[in-house]
Amino acid sequence: MQPDLSSLSEQVERETLTLREVETELRKVIVGQDYLLDRLLVGLLARGHILIEGVPGLAKTLAVKTLAQTLDIEFRRIQFTPDLLPADLLGTLIYDQRHGEFLPRKGPLFTNLLLADEINRAPAKVQSALLESMEERQVTLGETTYPLEEPFMVLATQNPIEQEGTYPLAEAQVDRFMMKLRLDYPNRNEEMDILNRMLVETPGDIKPILDGPRLAALRATCDAIYLDHKIKNYILDLVRATRDPESAGLPDLKSLISFGASPRATLFLARAAKALALLRGRGFVIPEDVKEIAVDVLRHRIVATYEAEAEEITSDDLAQRLLDRIEVP
User: Fold this and answer.
1) Which of 31, 118, 191, 272 has the fewest CB atoms inside 10 Å of its own CB, making it the most exposed?
2) What would the DSSP string read from start to end of 171-235?
3) Please, which pLDDT band fits residue 1 given cuts at 50, 70 and 90?
């Protein structure tokens, strides 16, 4: 049954104003980077973890730290290095001689917003320590499982140009990120703005806009955004075409895609489209919301074949071809 969109409109309008306040605070520090700021807010609303990839100096870490300042929730940053151990993230058990028992000492993973800086600089065993927390919102120490407090969100950064001393993320872990963002250099005007501002100004004080209950209310509104059956079918068509392009009427892509997106992508794409609609001030999702966010959700879930790599066709290119050719409702 179609919901009463008019009853949602007032709520959406109110929440959109709150999101504009958050954006205003972010822009006190961040110049340009509209794409990054939009996607950070989408992930925040849709309860999704985000992997941010870009060369050094593109304000990846700064953007995440500034977002944390607009939120009145606990924030921690972990600098990933080759000598990091899983216990450095999760915590460990400490023997208490007085009581003759092991007591938990919780690690920095027990927070609301976690910045995993340069995540690909730590070995696989450390990266894998994040898996349980990202998917199940819990951490196991010894024989006891501890639930993580809501909200819980992982924002990870990585540098794509260095290979020495880095460890590529495992496919199983990458799939747990709702979106993978690829940042490019700012344009000339934005870079001039950065130069002028940072030479003579210090960033203004960032005031917190959202606390835990306020963020929970925002997320509840995001969940209520209307997603029509036709849009759901469009999302399914896109995701399923990554697995079997031939049955979707795209036989030329069959030799270019080795593995497609999992059902997790279907859910994430729907949730991200809802969050983007709320960010745009609408109580319903339109096809353009899906098309705008789809590449970010699919790029790390489409595995290109050797043939595609030989032709210098990337997963971004394949996702865009699907968007260009799958029928829009």
Assistant:
1) 191
2) HHHHTTSSEEEE-----HHHHHHHHHHHHH--PPPPPP-EEHHHHHHHHHHHHHSB--HHHHHHH
3) very low
Paired tokens of 150: 């809501």
CATH no. for 5-212: 3.40.50.300
Between the alpha carbon of residue 54 and those of residues 28, 38, 271, 300, 302, the distances in Å are 22, 16, 25, 14, 19
Phi, psi of 196 (to 5 degrees): -65, -40
- Superfamily of structural domain 225-325: Magnesium chelatase subunit I, C-Terminal domain (1.10.8.80)
DSSP character at residue 101: E
Contacts of range 82-91, beta carbons closer than 8 Å, 24 or more positions apart: 82/121, 82/122, 82/123, 82/165, 84/122, 84/123, 84/126, 85/126, 86/125, 86/126, 86/128, 86/129, 88/126, 89/126, 89/129, 89/130, 90/129, 90/139, 90/141, 91/139, 91/141
Per DSSP, the residues of 232-251 read: HHHHHHHHHHHH-TTTTT-G
What are the φ/ψ torsions at residue 179 (nearest 5 degrees)? -135, 150
CA angle 70, 76, 77 (to 5 degrees): 105
Q: What integer pLDDT is reported at residue 165 of this predicted model?
A: 65
- Are 323 and 294 within 8 A, CB to CB? yes
**Domain spans of the chain?**
5-212, 225-325
**CB burial of residue 163 (10 Å; 0-12, 13-18, 19+):** exposed
pTM of the model: 0.90
**β partners of residue 79:** 117
Mean pLDDT calculated for residue range 225-241: 94
Closest to 154 measured CA to CA, from 113, 194, 121: 113
Q: Do the domains at 5-212 and 225-325 have one common CATH topology?
A: no
Dist. CA 326–CA 244, nearest whole Å: 13
